Each structure stands twice: as C-alpha cells, then as structure tokens.
Amino acid sequence: MAVSAPVTLCPSDSRSLSSALVSSRSNKPSSLDAVRSRRLNLGDSARPISTAARMTCFAKKQHIAAVPLCTLEAKRYEPIVKMCGITSAFDAEMALKAGAKLIGMILWPKSKRSIPLSEAKEISRVAKSYGAESVGVFVDDDSSTILTASDSCNLDLIQLHGDSSRELLPLLWKNNRIIYVLNADEDGKLINAPPSEEYVLDWFLVDSAKGGSGKGFNWEKFQMPTVKSKNGWLLAGGLHADNVHEAASALKPNGLDVSSGICFPDGLRKDPKRMCSFMSSVKTLNLL
Fold this sequence. Notes:
It holds the Pfam family PRAI. It is an enzyme of class 5 (isomerase). The strands form 2 sheets. The chain has an 8-stranded parallel β-barrel with strand order 3-4-5-6-7-8-9-10, surrounded by 4 helices. Helix content is 29%, strand content 17%. It has helices at residues 19-24, 32-37, 51-60, 89-98, 117-129, 143-153, 163-166, 169-172, 244-251, 272-283; strands at residues 7-10, 65-68, 80-83, 102-106, 133-139, 157-161, 178-184, 203-208, 233-235, 255-258. The protein is globular and about 40 Å long.
C-alpha cells in the first residue's frame, strides 16, 4: 500500500486495520518480541509503535490501526434550518425535535399566522431550552413596537420585512441581532437592495416577493449580492421536502427557511411528518 503522507498510530481505534499491517503478518501468530520489533512497511516516514501504545493495545486486546495523520473527509453541506410561522409551543417543540435551529414567529397582526406576545414568549422559552434561537418576524412596524415585543418575548433575533421596518436598521442594529430580508421576483431579480456595508448583520434572508405565500422564485437565475454578514444567508420561498435539494444545490445558502412547506392543509398548524420529511431531505445534501 503506497502512502504519501505521514501516519499516526491510533491504539484507541479498534474498528479497522491498515491493509499494510494486515498484509505484513504471517498466518502464524506473532510473538510479543516480533510485535515489539515490527515496523509498518510504509516508507521512511513511518513511526514505530510506542511502548505506551503496545501496552494499551495488548491490555485491551485490540489491534493497531494505521491511519493518515490528516484524514481528509468529504465535507457535508448541511445548512441550518429555520422553521417559521410557528404558532404554538407544541409546534415549536416538534420543530426543535426535528432539528430546527431557528424558530420563527410572526408578530405582524395582518398575518394569519400572527400570535400574541404571551404565546411568543412561551415559544421563545421552549426554543432556548433546546439550545435553539427564537426569531420575531416584523413587517412595516415602528421601532417601539419591535423593541417592546423583543424585550417582552426575550427574542434572540429580529427579522425585518417591509420598507418601513428595514428603514429602522440604523436604530436597531447596534443593540439587536438582525435578519434582514431581501425579496426577489419570480425571475430571481432582487426587488430591494441590501443595506450599506457598514451594517454587519447576523443574517440576510432571501424570500419571494410576498413572504409566507408558499411561492418561490427562479433559483437558477438568482445571484446573491455581495453582503457582509456574521452567519451568511438564509433561503426562503416555497421550500418543501421535494424541492429543497434542488434549491440548495443551485444556491448553496447557509440556511434554509421553511414555513408553508411543513404545514397541514390549513396553513397554520405544523405537520410533524412534513417537518421530518423536510429535515430528512436536508440531511441528504452532500455538496462539496
């Protein structure tokens, strides 16, 4: 077996044997002295087995596996998932058990998924108990409304939709963690521009022209603009278990935002089966 890189000997790894080590052994059992003097036939860079390693291996009756010092594994592309439009603590817990890392709540009264602050506070508490983060979604609200809700519900992130809310960025960004929404039309062209680069935000989120509608946009034509963000960007807009692989493959966002795609037909309650199907699709992504 040709080895071009240095190797390290891992006595704690009993699951596999180096083919070089296996091939170097005869069919007869090796004596302890023979094992002490054995060297892996891996070139000048190979290291002898240390006394400590031999003692550990023989004490535990384990084999020694030779592995590269720097094992290169395929990098799995697995964006984080934000499940939005959560309307109850029960649905929040289902989403968290499925694997969501961001829990979004609509705090805009005109939305059918809007919830009172008392419910949002409880959802936020549940999210934190799972080590996830809560997101309050605001559409064209004033700063007083946004800050009051954020404090009352103990929100981790504020998501700004609509021109009026986005115009408040200079007032909000220093003391709050922000998800800034960019909207794209059906052809994948941005409707609104990102803010000045002086604002380094937590996340950008790209959604269809009408967020929460369950409609997407042309992923193949869309090009993410250059923005400054601490965590990257989230893709939203009509995602569900059957198309998330295509969308993520085309755009490779840092996160995925799903709402309508995990709902029961009423568009309000979350369907645990659809949640799990969506997460299963996300976990199959392996884009280098």
